[in-house]
């Protein structure tokens, strides 16, 4: 296994969050591939019950067990785990109380659902606990089982509450196994071994939610990671043309002459030019808005990584492409 400098040396738990629709799960999956490259072993965890990992890797629904799902570039393995809160509860009862069989009976009575409904913080402790256990786990040789763990976390608006498990269970248990378990989870989540990354688009709402999320994260004493700008569209025109269009100086007549000289749109070059000119103006406006959103993200002071909008959508090949881009930018 070769070593290389990255922005996140020493980080072993990568939490990925973002506003809905930004491609959070796709980025988490690509990050897992990037981190596993060159012979490493990475666990990719999801906790929302959406089977998003299975979808992006084009696999059947994943069971509640760690299983290998991909080979990373240059060798290395990606394992996946879809955490089921009920199974996590049963593991918890067995671990601390030796009650797995009794727990299954309680599950049939609906006690598990009842407990996690009236105390949602307890549910978060269960699923984050499973993730942080994987971070800490060691083999017989004393080495960590996984070189890194990537957590596909809840959306930005809920991620701080999800991770701040000590506060969430404070009213539920001040002493005992639940409190001790929460403290153990918090010890990993709030440590330098963890980074919480945000996924955004160059649009006003997801950018503002990212900035608010970073501020809230810092207020809770949790470690902010990087910002992944997803689905970036490259400019199709030179800067001079975009500047002219944005300033209202783009001349459709010149475009019509160019079309005519090229033998395009004969007899209707003016009409075609007008339509194309409108497209150019819209493109220029969007490019200017995206520039403003990049400037807004500068205020966060976090490392940034740009991932392109893939023209054919995100398939398995696309995931590997995104992983290589992440590595090229120092994210993994």
From TrEMBL:
GO terms for molecular function: ATP binding; ATP hydrolysis activity. InterPro entries: ArsA/GET3_ATPase-like, ATPase_ArsA/GET3, P-loop_NTPase. Residues 13-170 form the ArsA/GET3 Anion-transporting ATPase-like domain. It holds the Pfam family ArsA_ATPase. PANTHER family: ARSENICAL PUMP-DRIVING ATPASE ARSENITE-TRANSLOCATING ATPASE, ATPASE RV3679-RELATED. Transmembrane segments: none annotated. Coiled coil: none annotated. This is ATPase.
């Amino acid at each position: 296994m070769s070593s290389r400098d990255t922005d996140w040396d020493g980080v072993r738990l990568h939490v990925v969050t973002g506003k809905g629709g930004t491609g959070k799960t796709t980025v988490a999956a690509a990050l897992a591939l990037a981190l596993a490259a060159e012979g490493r072993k990475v666990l990719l965890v999801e906790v929302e019950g959406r089977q998003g990992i299975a979808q992006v890797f084009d696999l059947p629904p994943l069971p509640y067990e760690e299983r290998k799902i991909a080979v990373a570039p240059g060798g290395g393995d990606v394992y996946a785990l879809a955490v089921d809160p009920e199974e996590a509860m049963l593991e918890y009862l067995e671990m601390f109380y030796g009650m797995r069989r009794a727990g299954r009976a309680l599950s049939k009575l609906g006690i598990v659902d009842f407990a996690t409904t009236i105390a949602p913080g307890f549910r978060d402790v269960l699923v984050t606990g499973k993730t942080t256990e994987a971070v800490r786990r060691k083999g017989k040789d004393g080495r960590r089982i996984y070189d890194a763990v990537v957590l596909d976390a809840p959306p930005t608006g809920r991620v701080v509450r999800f991770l701040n498990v000590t506060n969430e269970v404070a009213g539920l248990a001040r002493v005992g196994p639940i409190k001790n378990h929460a403290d153990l989870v918090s010890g990993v989540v709030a440590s330098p071994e963890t980074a919480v990354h945000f996924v955004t688009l160059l649009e006003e709402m997801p950018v503002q939610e990212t900035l608010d999320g970073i501020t809230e994260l810092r207020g809770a004493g949790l470690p902010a990671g990087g910002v992944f700008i997803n689905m970036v569209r490259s400019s199709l025109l030179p800067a001079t043309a975009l500047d002219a269009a944005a300033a209202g100086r783009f001349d459709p007549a010149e475009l019509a002459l160019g079309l005519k000289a090229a033998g395009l749109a004969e007899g209707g070059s003016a009409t075609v030019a007008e339509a194309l000119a409108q497209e150019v103006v819209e493109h220029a406006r969007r490019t200017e808005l995206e520039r403003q959103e990049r400037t807004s993200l500068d205020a966060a002071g976090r490392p940034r990584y740009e991932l392109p909008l893939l023209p054919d959508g995100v398939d398995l090949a696309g995931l590997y492409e995104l992983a290589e881009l992440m590595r090229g930018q120092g994210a993994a």
